# Entry
Amino acid sequence: MKIELTITDKEELSYLQSSLAVAIHELSASEKNHEDSIYWLSQILLLSYQ
# Structure
């Protein structure tokens, strides 16, 4: 699978990064197993910093 991310608006990028970080934190704190979701959200978050 290939994920490409193109965001030119810095405010939108900041919002995306914040939202992804919160989602990852919430999934990590959940009692259910969300490893796959956490992995893909983390990959998108990392891409947003490139």
In short: Residues 14 and 49 are 10 Å apart (CA to CA). The two ends are 18 Å apart (CA to CA).
